[in-house]
Every structure is written in structure tokens, then in C-alpha cells.
Amino acid sequence: MAQRRSAKRPDAVSGIVDDWARERPELDTTPLEVLARLHRSYLQYQSRMTSQLDAHGLSVAGFDVLTALRRSGAPYRLTAGQLAASGLISSAGVTLRLDRLEKDGLLVRERDAEDRRVVYSRLTEAGLKKIDEVFAAHLENERRMLGGLSPAERRQLGGLLSKLERSIVESDEAVTSNETVEAGPNPSRAHGRG
């Protein structure tokens, strides 16, 4: 019953779109229908995820490191470079995250037996137990958040979000390509005026 009620009630973005339609009717505000809702949904998601991780004594950054190590499979170890390349972790903050997790006893650093320059971060038993517990709770939290969508809607939305990400990346490539074409040879320089 709660799902039907909330589906009928206009959201904040509807009000924003209505305001712009009144104030600037010549503008096409349809991007707000998608991206403003996506942004607001992300903020709601982030708040709930952060709160849940805090309850387990983890930051989002620490969680990302632990999940990357866990996903790598036994012996659950990666170099800092591999962690940064895992997709969710920026190279800038890896060392600080590793220091914190090591201090908390959730991972240890080990030098490679053959190349002492290579340092791995490896989950400890406590780290493995912690991430298995926290990740299961994380997925349950996400299931609750998606409770208003049917399985078919979740699959459809997942596919659309994947397509949206590609569209955003390709929009950057299109801008770069257009800038290169537009820059072309500079006629003013060709005539000695540049």
C-alpha cells in the first residue's frame, strides 16, 4: 500500500521541472527528469549506505578496499596498483586506506618473495570475516532500497543505467572530438595575425 501511495505523489524533481516550465518555457528540461532524479537517488543511497557501514566501523573507502580484496579470491591479496585499477578506488587515497585497515587488523602488507619491491595487501582472517559479514548486510540493505521495484524493473533499470554511463562517457569523447575538429588550422595564424 505504501508503494502505491508514494508512486502517486509527485517528487521534488517534478516541482523543479514545473518551476522551470513556468519561468523558462522555451527550455527543454527533460534531462532533469533523468539526471536530477538520479542525483537525488544517489544522495539517498549514499546516506543509507554510509550509515550502515558506519555501524560496522567501516568507511566507504575501507569497504571498497576490503571488497576488492575479497573479490580477488584466495589468497585475497592485491598490490596498491591493482587496488586502484579495480575500478572503485582512486590511487590517491589507497595508502591512507591501507594504513587504517592494517591498523584495525583487517589486512596485512607482505612483500613479494621474488621481487621485494612489490608489496601486497592481504586480508587477515578478521578482515575476511568482517567483509563477509558486512557485504551480506550491504546487499540486504540494497535489496530493501530496491523493494519498490519488481525484478523485471530492476533488470531494466540496470540495463538503462549501464547505457546511461556509456552515453555520459561518449559525450565527453564527442566534445573532445568536436573541439579537435573545430580547432583545426587557425586561419589568423596562417595570415600572420596570430
The main pleated sheet reads as: 3 strands, antiparallel
Strand composition percent: 5-15%
Order of helices and strands: HHHHEHHEEHHH
Q: pLDDT below 50 for ≥5 consecutive residues: which ranges? A: 187-194
User: Which strands sit side by side, in order, in the main sheet?
Assistant: 1-3-2
Keywords:
single chain; 194 residues; mainly alpha; three-stranded antiparallel β-sheet
Word description of this protein:
It is globular, with a radius of gyration of 24 Å. The chain has a three-stranded antiparallel β-sheet. The longest helix has 33 residues, at 151-183. The protein contains nine helices and three strands; from the N terminus they run H-H-H-H-E-H-H-E-E-H-H-H. By secondary structure, it is mainly alpha-helical.
TL;DR?
The chain is mainly alpha-helical and 194 residues long. Helices cover 68% and strands 7% of the residues.
SSE layout:
Elements lengths: L1 H7 L3 H12 L6 H26 L4 H12 L5 E3 H6 L8 H10 L3 E5 L7 E5 L1 H21 L5 H33 L3 H4 L4
Antiparallel strand pairs: 1-3, 2-3
Helix pairs in contact: 3-7, 4-7
